[in-house]
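FIELD: query
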Amino acid sequence: MYDNDISGVVAADRAHVWHHLIQHRAFDAKDPRIIVEGKGLSVWDQNGREFMDAVSGGVWTVNVGYGRESIADAVRDQLVKMNYFAGSAGSIPGALFAQKLIEKMPGMSRVYYTNSGSEANEKAFKMVRQIAHKRYGGKKNKILYRDRDYHGTTIGALSACGQEQRAAQYGPFVPGFVPVPHCLEYRAQWDVENYGQRAADAIEEVILREGPDTVGALCLEPVTAGGGVIVPPKDYWERVQEICAKYDILLHIDEVVCGVGRTGTWFGYQQFGVKPDMVTMAKGVASGYAAIACLVTTEGVFDQFRDDAADPLNHFRDISTFGGCTAGPAAALENMKIIEDEHLLDNTTAMGARLMAGLEAIKDKHAVVGDVRGMGLFCGAELVADRATKEPLDEKIVAAVVADCDRQGVILGMTNRSIPGFNNTLCLSPALISTADDIDRMLATIDEALTNVCGQS
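FIELD: result
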């Protein structure tokens, strides 16, 4: 413990901690921020200053809010009884959470535990490649991914990265990953009446160009997250499903951000009637109270690895060390119980509608807001320098808006060093416990920040 000597903690952090996504030169002139406590939607820094967290831990994670003693108690009790054993054996919370999770995912069957969202996606990619060797002589190994989507930080996951700046300087990448166009109608690539269907048809065009016999899977976010909070247009997902079935392509849905309530259903794909073959999830599974990620598959995918035990290469030869930690599923069970008991899916739908209506009103007031979009408590506002031409607002100005919100005591997100020229979307993903007063405060803060930074329209 730090014995209340917060200055010592700050000094230790400055000297020894390598923070995520931060240019540490900034700490030459200021202290790093230390978050020391959280309760509900509020967090406090080392100076005792309170902030409303409108992005659930900075990266869309703390779905049920801070300070949940029942989750902490569940983790503590489980760790004392049995903290860890390799995933080659089972555990009580691992079995019970898998059962509970599958109950929420009709059509799915098997849960593979892993360490992080990036690694969950890596597992899915490995399964696709192994199936290609087992069934197709190694040929059907290509994995399609969508422009603006993001699937993780490892080299394999970055090979499927639709955000150029996230992947910059980390190549060369793994071969066999092929991009397909994004589906953001506000940044339309085609002038057509049914944009959703046209954007999906573009995927088929890539498949035909590459050769259907070479494409094993299509990996998509249900709602694009860090690429600009993009809700696919009408008819998009129906057409995507048809294309995958037509060419015998596995549909892999990356629910690392949208999963476990964020959009108002248990999973984002359930908003669109999609029937995936593989689903990956992480962040909200235990709301950040313990590390857990999952790859969930259909029984059909699982059965492709149920072969002659005499062949040592037939099963899925993979290990995820901390996939055997029991804290994750213990926390996830209690997290899911809270969402059920407190009717947080309904609250997410209601508060999400309030948030979107408020963002539309801000758009009417401020010409700098070009588009608002979202689903549930997962919303974005794209800022533009000129509404007529849709010229994106300079990233530094968008960052200044976020900084002004921070000054007012609300932590907001934005597309950040992801897409050259298009890091211009404000991102909101508050905890599913948000109240009407919470939503109204977020909206008032954004309204004031836009006035302060961009002026009155």
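FIELD: remark
The CA atoms of residues 343 and 433 lie 9 Å apart.
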